[in-house]
Amino acid sequence: SQAAHGVSVVYIRENFWGQWSLEQCSQNRRITVNTEVEFSGPVASSDLLKNPADNVPRGTVNNCGSGPTPWGTYITCEENFNGYFGSTTGEIGGFDDLQDEAYARYGFGAGGAGYGWHNFDPRFDLSNPDYANESNRFGWCVEIDPFDGSKKAVKRTALGRFKHEAAAIKELDDGRIAVFMGDDQRGDYCYKYESNSPWRSYMPWGMSPLDDGKLYVARFDEGTDAGDGKGFGEWIELTCNNPAIFDAGLTSQDLVLTYARLAADAVGATPMDRPEWSTIGTKGELYWTRPNNDRKDDGQGAVSEVNPIFENRDGYIIRTTDLSPTTFEWSVFILARNT
């Protein structure tokens, strides 16, 4: 089961007749749950990623949406990572109060999602103190270089930890990059990361623009004309220097990024109807899909001008355009409804 999860890198070729075939290539490979990986960015050296067992970080799971980078690599996103963990005792956590709060917020449970790995692999046993932080090693954006099999997959922690669906990467006018990401769960949020410098300036030094930047979460404000499906919003930086985040117990940036959902909760981000796939339009605008949410009566989101349907069963698309690093305008681009 573990060998079946992860990412494949394959070389395919189209012949003269339009037929595709898999070709033998030294770069063809699998990156599975047990493949050694690296961490980079602000959380890389944090104790939040260390286990008493001192085991090497391995694996990527539940890889969902993705995005190519301007420098030729590939970002794959770890989505419902919580379901792979369970408990052999029926109890979870108890090692750290903040982590216990995060367990609830990210949806961890003693039974997991039915994979049963915790019964055979102690890494995925939430009651095993030797692997107390193993769950913190999942839920990240993972960068893969498809053209160099000698490089490990890298988990870019500056992009935050949540149920990533996709990574839409845009080169800004000044050469910096922005990465737009949805947290694909009912009632969760839209995020953006911006590098601090132009991406090309990092490359000669062997650095990554995905390690040096700011992470934001979106607040969608109501429009000036009620019911017109348009409005403005604010990108709120997720930093421990924000008093609301600090007071929530996220007193250092590694805590903010590892428990990004808790940080976003603290600053009043707008709950959305499953922020799923996103892509960049021809004029630089963003399109965010919202596939469904029929559980608002369970407290998973709320009706608002940007989430206009109580039982959203058929989805809609929101369009946003950044006006500055911290402000944007939004509109309902397509509203689907089965009548």
Question: How does this structure look, described?
Answer:
The chain is mostly beta strands. Helices cover 9% and strands 29% of the residues. It contains 5 helices and 20 strands. Strand 2 and strand 3 (20-23) form a beta hairpin.
Global Rg: 20 Å
Instruction: Spell the H/E element sequence.
Output: EEEEEEEHEEEEEEHEEHHHEEEEE
How many helices? The count is 5
Give the beta-strand count. 20
Task: Tell me briefly what this model is.
The chain is mainly beta. The protein is 9% helix and 29% strand.
Question: Which helices and strands occur, and which strands form pairs?
Answer:
Blueprint: E1 6-9, E2 11-14, E3 20-23, E4 29-32, E5 38-40, E6 63-68, E7 74-78, H1 97-106, E8 141-144, E9 154-156, E10 168-171, E11 177-182, E12 186-188, E13 190-195, H2 199-202, E14 213-220, E15 230-237, H3 243-247, H4 253-258, H5 260-266, E16 272-273, E17 278-280, E18 286-290, E19 316-324, E20 327-335
Parallel strand pairs: 5-9
Antiparallel strand pairs: 1-4, 2-3, 6-7, 7-8, 8-9, 10-11, 11-13, 12-16, 13-14, 14-15, 15-20, 17-18, 18-19, 19-20
Provide key terms for this protein:
339 residues, mainly beta, nine-stranded antiparallel β-sheet
